[in-house]
Write a structure and sequence with these properties.
425 residues, mainly alpha, three-stranded antiparallel β-sheet, 53% helix, elongated, disordered N terminus
C-alpha cells in the first residue's frame, strides 16, 4: 500500500512539474510605468507646489519641515544627517558645532522639534547648498519610489494616479494615506480589489468625500492642495481636462455633451454630478441646485448681507450663500415671502427667468413667440422670447413638437447646463 501511495505522489509531482509556472504576483509597477520619468515629474511637482530647495517651515503642525518635499520632523533630521555625512566639515561650519552635534549625535527625537529663527536660517543655508540640493534629489527619489510602490500595492495603476497618490502620502504619511485611500474607496464604492485607472475618478473621489462631510478634517483641510496637484498633473502630462468620469455622459455631437463637460471643468466647478460616476442628465434640478449652479458660474461671490428671509434655507446647506446672493441680486424670489422651497424642482420657465434676470433683464423686440403654450400673461414670457433671441434652446424641448416648450414642467440637469453654457461660455 505504501509503495502505491509513494508511486502516486511521484507521478503527481512529475505532472505538476510539467505545468508552466504562472505568476500570482499580478502586474508589476516596473513593467507598466516608467519609474524614472515618474520620479522626474514628481520632483517637479513638489518644487512647483510644495517649496524650493531652501524652504524651511520652523513649525508645521507639531514639528519643522524642510526642503522642497517638506520633510517633516524626523524626516527633516534624516535629510540633515544625509547632508552632514556627505560633507561633515561644511555642514558643521554652517550649523555650528552644538547644532551639528544635536542633529547627528543627539538622542532627542525630532518628532516635535521646532526651529527658532536662527536655526531656520542655518538650515536653509545648508539645504540650499550644492551638497544640500544633491542630497535632496537623492532622498526625494528614494521617498517617491517608496510612495509609488505603496500606491501600486494599493491599487493605483497609472502614472497620473501614482503622482497623485505620492502627494497624498507625502502630505499625510503612510498611515494617513492608508486611511485616505479607505475613505476614497468608501466614497466610490470600490472594494479592496478594485484599481484606480482614472486620475479623474481618483481626484473626484476626494472632492466627493469632502462634499459629504462624513470624513475627517484632513479631507476638507487639504482640498485646495488636491486641486493644485490635479491641475499640475493634467498640465504636465498633457491630459485632456475635458474628460469627465460620467458613464452617462451623452456621446460627442449630442447637444448636451459639451455643456456637461463645461459644467464639470468650469472653475469654480458648477457640478460634480449626482454621484461619483453619473451626471443624471434627465433628472430634474431643484431650485436650490439651480441658484447654486449659477452662483458657481459667477465665481461664488459672497452675498453682501446675511439677512435670510426663508425659514427653509438653513445656514448649513450647500445652497445657503447661493440663495442669499441670488435673492439679494433680484435674480429669483421665494415661492412665498418666507419659503424658498429649495428642494422643489425648478421649472423651465423659472430657469429661463433666472438666467434672463442674471443677464440684466434685457428687453426684447422683433421676436416672434414660437410656442403655443407660452402665454404673454405669464412671468416667463419675456425671458423665453429673450432666450429664443439668444439661441439658448436646443430645439427639442417639446419632445418632438416644435411649438411646445412645456414651461411649467421640471427642467432637467442637461437642459440647465446647456442653457447656461450657451449663455455664459
Amino acid at each position: 500500500m505504501k509503495q502505491r501511495i509513494i508511486a502516486l505522489l511521484l507521478t503527481l509531482c512529475l505532472c505538476l512539474s510539467l505545468i508552466p509556472a504562472v505568476s500570482a504576483a499580478g502586474p508589476s509597477l516596473e513593467d507598466n510605468v516608467d519609474v524614472d520619468l515618474l520620479v522626474s515629474h514628481a520632483i517637479q511637482m513638489y518644487l512647483d507646489l510644495e517649496g524650493q530647495y531652501s524652504s524651511v517651515t520652523p513649525k508645521d503642525s507639531n514639528a519643522c519641515s524642510i526642503g522642497f518635499m517638506q520633510w517633516h520632523g524626523e524626516g527633516a533630521r534624516d535629510l540633515l544627517k544625509m547632508i552632514s555625512a556627505s560633507d561633515p566639515i561644511y555642514a558643521e561650519e554652517v550649523l555650528g558645532t552644538e547644532f551639528f552635534e544635536e542633529i547627528n549625535i543627539g538622542a532627542n527625537s525630532w518628532k516635535n522639534r521646532i526651529l527658532n529663527s536662527t536655526e531656520a536660517s542655518l538650515v536653509s543655508t545648508l539645504i540650499d547648498s550644492p551638497v544640500g540640493r544633491q542630497c535632496q534629489d537623492l532622498l526625494a527619489r528614494e521617498t517617491i519610489v517608496s510612495e509609488v510602490k505603496t500606491g501600486w500595492k494599493r491599487g493605483v495603476r497609472t502614472e497620473p494616479g501614482l503622482l497623485y497618490y505620492s502627494s497624498i502620502e507625502n502630505q499625510f504619511g503612510i498611515g494617513g494615506a492608508n486611511n485616505c485611500m479607505r475613505y476614497l474607496r468608501e466614497t466610490i464604492g470600490f472594494s479592496a480589489e478594485d484599481t484606480f485607472d482614472s486620475l479623474l475618478i481618483f481626484h473626484n473621489a476626494w472632492l466627493q468625500a469632502d462634499a459629504t462631510g462624513n470624513y475627517p478634517n484632513s479631507i476638507t483641510k487639504y482640498k485646495k492642495a488636491r486641486i493644485k496637484v490635479f491641475n499640475f498633473i493634467v498640465n504636465t502630462l498633457g491630459l485632456n481636462p475635458g474628460t469627465t468620469p460620467f458613464i452617462d455622459l451623452p456621446a460627442e455631437g449630442h447637444w448636451a455633451h459639451d455643456a456637461i463637460e463645461w459644467a464639470y471643468t468650469h472653475n469654480p466647478q458648477i457640478t460634480a454630478g449626482t454621484n461619483f460616476t453619473t451626471f443624471s442628465p434627465d433628472a430634474a434640478l431643484t431650485r436650490g441646485e439651480a441658484v447654486t449652479f449659477l452662483w458657481a458660474a459667477a465665481g461664488k461671490p459672497n452675498p453682501s448681507s446675511s439677512h435670510n428671509p426663508f425659514g427653509d434655507v438653513k445656514s448649513d446647506r450647500f445652497y445657503y450663500s447661493a440663495v442669499l446672493w441670488a435673492v439679494e441680486k433680484g435674480f429669483i424670489a421665494g415661492r412665498t415671502p418666507t419659503d424658498f422651497c429649495p428642494a422643489e424642482s425648478v421649472t423651465r420657465g423659472e430657469m429661463i427667468t433666472l438666467l434672463w434676470a442674471y443677464a440684466g433683464k434685457p428687453t426684447v423686440s422683433n421676436v416672434t413667440n414660437p410656442y403655443s403654450d407660452v402665454s404673454s400673461e405669464r412671468f416667463y414670457y419675456t425671458p423665453i422670447l429673450w432666450a429664443v433671441s439668444r439661441g439658448l434652446f436646443v430645439g427639442n424641448e417639446g419632445g418632438g413638437s416644435s411649438d411646445l416648450l412645456y414651461p411649467k414642467i421640471p427642467c432637467s440637469r442637461a437642459y440647465v447646463v446647456t442653457y447656461m453654457y450657451r449663455l455664459l461660455r
